Each structure stands twice: as structure tokens, then as C-alpha cells.
Amino acid sequence: MRIFFRILPLFLGLFMFYPAACSLIGDGPTMKNDLIVRRGGFECLKIIVTEKNLPRLAELNILIDGETLGYRLLEGRHVFADREFLAYPTTTLQGAPRNIRISAPFQVLSTIMYRPPPLERLRMLFERLTVWRPRLFMWIFPAVILGWIAVGSYLLAVLTAPNGSKEKKEERPGSKGAER
Amino acid sequence: MQWEFQCGNPKKRFAKKGCRHMTKRRFALLLALFSACHTFLWIYLVPPGQGADEETHFAIVEHLAHFHTGPDAGKDFWLSLNWDSAIEAAGYSEIRLQTFRRPHYVEWTDQYPEKARMSGPTYMSGSSGAPWLYHLLGAFVYGVSSSASVFHRMYAVRLLGILFAVGLSHFSWRLFTTLEGDGEFSRGAAMCVAAQPMAHFLCGYVTPDGATLCLTAAFLYACWALSKRSAQPRDFIGLGIFCGAAFWVKPLIISFVPIALFVVLTNKISCNRRFGVALFLLTVGAPLAVWSSFSWIRYGGPTNLWMYKPDPSATLLGTTWKYAVGLSPGALFSQGLGVFGWLDAPLAKPVRLIAAIVFILGWSSVIVLALRGRISRPWLALMAVPFVHFAVVMAGVIWTSKNTGYFNWVPGRYFLYPLAGWMGPALLGWHRVLAEKIPVVRLCAAGSFFLAAYSLFWIVLERYYL
């Protein structure tokens, strides 16, 4: 148990930064049928359809640079009547795609999802996380994250310190430690 | 008691060993720092206008700062042009309640004169008829940051939430200390409060809910500290003024009155009890009467809800039934635990399920222990607090609804205010059953910490930035 609480900051840090470091990033869904690939690291297409259109989902056709794309759908979240799907390409893409066309007999919300290279990801997140805010907030934000992990872990470690383990050895005159 | 016989007096045991590792002052400081950092992360990560009713509350703050009077609902309750254009530029109306949409990440500068407002009543909600004490504080901060853009001013007003969050965790810790002594349990439970995501989300945007959480924790601590000694008349005056002033922050705090009255009626007292009760009722009644008179003159009723047309055929029983059918315990629990943004960024279902199981098992244990007579009276009283609050809030909402015809949709966060009263007994249940085998309170504190991190960096970050 003690080891668990000692490695907690590391574990917590990994847990906290996982989505920022590894998740797919999109630009927000649009109703448009023509999507332009704006960044490197194209991964898949996120598609949001309403429940009543689910039976016709097989009629969805995706064209990448004019060529029909083979894809497999992975179901994501569903909120109210909306269902989210991720369409991963199954055909090998020739180079980086430039534009994507979606044709469907029903209305689809879609967005391109990227897994950008680390520097690009950092730049995107920096832009998104620093817009709107006062400059002071931007500067102290990383320090606050680290401070929160550090203070929280320290508090937990102290709470979790075996209750007076050192003192126990000193206090018990009959114990082996004291006899030595 | 059998439990005491088995493992010694817990108060003494924890008081000794807890303090051995960290002094009270140091713990209080670190707890405040932890809570402040947690709230700052919420302030930072929730985009402008994306807290429930945030734009309404901010509009009131702006109105107070610009015109030095509160908005008159339905007449001059207009958003400022700068605020309206800024939140629209950030994609406010597109992303609100649209889980899959993302904000527009564009910087915005104010384009209109500071006091320019939209040309008609643009937004109406019950909030505009509520008292303004919190908004006055916000207006002061707004005024101090007068050279900044409207977004920056909103972030400045949000910073007030750090004070409330620190107060919430500190008073909760002091409350647990009066009940269980200063040690592992009270510190672990305080840390659970300081890591509760929904409470800190409420502290992190412009709303009186954060202040209400802090005031409720302070009120509970004051009552339980008072019950440990013989009360003086000045204590009742203080308690009355506190309840009355808290009403000026959020009228739902009216649930304080029966709790405080219980303390006044059952406490050891150094004067005539009737005199004490009269003193309390007089001091609590004065601020209520001031607001009610003002509100009656301005809105023709206790709130602006009087503008609605009541259904003459509505009965108290019928309205109660309507609410009883409409309230779903599952939804209330989810909203109390963690539904962020404009109630459009909930925690994942399995996470909510695990939290519900932990919570229900903790409460079940403490109820069984209470039935077997193993829970002290102060703890029993604290266990009753959330239910008294629930009953008073529902009675108030049903009464208003019956008389005004306005169906007030009751979100789970209204019942979260006595946070220590919800979390303390649940943790005590776990602690009394398992403390000898595993460090259960520490594990719960670690779990709360992870839940907070999950809410911020998996739910909110994903919702608005990825």
C-alpha cells in the first residue's frame, strides 16, 4: 500500500496528461460534405448521425481525393439522439489525403480527426488553451497543474504514512527492534 | 461502545498520530493550496459562458458595475453588447448543449462602448430576481479590472471562486475535526471534499453556487462547534445574521433556518431559551424582510417569478406529484457528482456507477451502524442535514411553482450544498467497517483526486479542446 502512494504522483501525472498527449484532435464537426485536410497526421473521420438514420448508415460513402474509401466504423459516445462513429480507413492511402467528400442520403455531422506529430500537437494545444485568457493565467497554468499534483500527492503520502511506524519501534520496549 | 473497546478511542489515537506527521497549520495551508489549485484549473479550462447560467449571472454583475443597481427582470435585463458579441465569437450558442461541437478559438477585443447594451430584454431566468450579494462582490472585482477586455473581466470575477473553494474545504475539515478529532479521518475526508469535482466546477465559474457551498460548510461548522459549549445570546444573534446574510447570496439557503433552530432549541444555553429563540428569529428575519419588501415593490412578489401566470386549478398535491414524477434520483446523483459545462459534459457512465456504489455502500454501512447505536449524536445530526436541506428546497420549489405557475427544473447541484453532510457520513461508514484492515479514507481521498483529474483532463479537456 505504501508503494502505491509513493508512485502516485507519477501514475497521476501519466493519467492526467494521457488525453492531451495521445488523444485524437479534431477541429469541431461541420454539416459540410466537403472537408479539407488542413494538418498532418490524418487518422480517421468522426461522424455523428441521429438515431433515426442508423439503419441507413451503410449507405454512407466516403471519397478521399476522389477515390472511394474502405472503412470500418467504431461506435463512440451517444448523447440524447446523436450517435458518434469513428470511420477508420481500411484501404491504404497513397500519401497524405488533401480533401474528403462524404455522400449520404441523410444529414451527417463530420470532422476529420488527426494524430498530429508532437510539435504540431503542442502548437495546437497551446493555441487552444491560451486563447481568451489573461496573460497571467497562461503563465501560471502549468505551475498550477504541477503544484496541484505535488501538493495532492504530498498530502496523500502524509495521510498514508504508516501511523508512527518509526515511533512504534521506539515505543515498544518488548519488540525485537528495541531489544537489539 | 464495542468499537471503542476494540480499537481504542479513535479521537485520541488519530489526534496523536495525525499531528505527528503534519501540524494543523501546515495541513490547513496545504489543503487551501490544493483546493485553490483545483479551482484555478476549473476556472482556466471551462470556456467563457459555458457554466450553467453563467452568462445570466455575469450580466447581473455587469449591470451592477455599470449602473450601480440590479437589473429589473423583463425590463432592462440586457446583456452588454461587448459580452454578447464576445461569447458569440467564442461559439457560445453553437456549443451550448451540443456535446459534439467545439468552440471557436478566436481572440476577441471589445468593440463597443463599455455601457452599450442590447436593444431589448434578451435573456430571462429566475436568477435575475434573486438577491445580489454574490453579484455585488463580483461587481467590485469587475470594477477593479476596468481596463481589461470583457473576457478578462469575467476570468477576474471567476477568481472569487478560489476563496469559496478554500473556505469550503477548510470549514469541512474543521467540521470533521469537531466530530472525529484532528487525524487521519478528518484530514482524509477534508481532502475528499477538496477534490470533489462538481463543487469546484461550481466555484470555478460565475455563479452564486460556489459561495453557497462555502457558506453552508461554514454554517455547519458554526452549528456543530456551538453545540459543544453553552451558547450565549450573542451566538444566536451571530447565527441569525449569518443565515439572513446567506439568504442574500442564494435563497435556497433558507434550509439553514430549521437546522439552526434545532441547534438553538437543543443546545446548552446560558439565558432563557425563549429569549434565545426570539433573538435568533428576529435576526434571521430582518434581512429576509428587507429583501422581501424590496422584491415585492420591484417584482410584485418574492422573486421575479411572479411575472408568470399561475394556473388557478393547480393544487399543492398536484404540483408535488408533478415534481415527484419529474425527479429522477439517478439524474440528481449524476448532476451532483459531475455534469459539467452547460450540463452537457457528464462523467462516463461506468465512473458514475462506481461512485454511486461507493457512496451508497458507505451510507448503508453508517445507517446500519446508527441503527445498532454505534454512531454518536452529533454524527446522527449531521446525517440528517442533507435530507432536511432536500426537504426544505423541494418544499420551497413546490410552493413557488404552485403560486407562480413556473416549473423550476431542479438540478442536482442544488442538493450538493451540504457537501460535508453527504460525504462525511459515507466515509464514516467505510471507515468504521474497514479502517482496521485497509486505509479506506486515504483510498477514498486518492480516488477523489483521480476523479478530479479525470473530470478535468479527460472530460473537460476532451469536450472543449480536443
Key traits:
heterodimer, A: 180 residues, alpha+beta, 6 helices, elongated, disordered C terminus, B: 466 residues, mainly alpha, two-stranded antiparallel ribbon, 67% helix, 1% strand, globular
Describe this structure as you would to a colleague.
The complex is a heterodimer of chains A (180) and B (466). Chain A is α+β, with helices and mostly antiparallel strands and 180 residues long. Helix content of chain A is 39%, strand content 27%. Chain A contains 6 helices and 9 strands. In chain A, a hairpin with a 2-residue loop joins strand 6 and strand 7. Chain A is elongated, with a radius of gyration of 26 Å. In chain B, strand 1 and strand 2 form a beta hairpin. The relative contact order of chain B is 0.12. Classes of the chains: A alpha+beta (180), B mainly alpha (466). Chains A and B meet through helix 2, strand 1, helix 3 and helix 4 of A and helix 2, helix 3, helix 8, helix 10 and helix 21 of B.
Low-confidence stretches of chain B: 1-19
Can you list the strand order of the major beta sheet of chain B? 1-2
The arrangement of helices and strands of chain A along the chain is HHEEEEEEEEEHHHH
What quaternary form is this? heterodimer
Global morphology of chain B:
globular
Query: Biggest β-sheet of chain B, characterized?
Result: 2 strands, antiparallel
| Derived structural class of chain A | alpha+beta
Secondary structure elements and pairings:
The complex is a heterodimer of chains A (180) and B (466).
Chain A: H1 2-6, H2 8-22, E1 25-26, E2 34-36, E3 42-50, E4 61-64, E5 67-68, E6 71-79, E7 82-89, E8 99-103, E9 109-114, H3 118-130, H4 135-160, H5 165-171, H6 176-179
Antiparallel strand pairs in A: 1-9, 2-8, 3-7, 3-9, 4-5, 4-8, 6-7
Helix pairs in contact in A: 2-4
Chain B: H1 2-7, H2 10-21, H3 24-45, H4 54-67, H5 81-89, H6 92-95, H7 133-144, H8 150-158, H9 160-180, H10 184-194, H11 197-203, H12 209-226, H13 233-247, H14 256-266, H15 273-299, H16 316-326, H17 329-338, E1 339-340, E2 345-346, H18 349-371, H19 377-404, H20 419-434, H21 440-465
Antiparallel strand pairs in B: 1-2
Helix pairs in contact in B: 3-9, 3-10, 3-11, 3-21, 4-7, 7-8, 9-10, 9-11, 9-12, 10-20, 10-21, 11-12, 12-13, 12-14, 13-14, 13-15, 14-15, 16-19, 18-20, 19-20
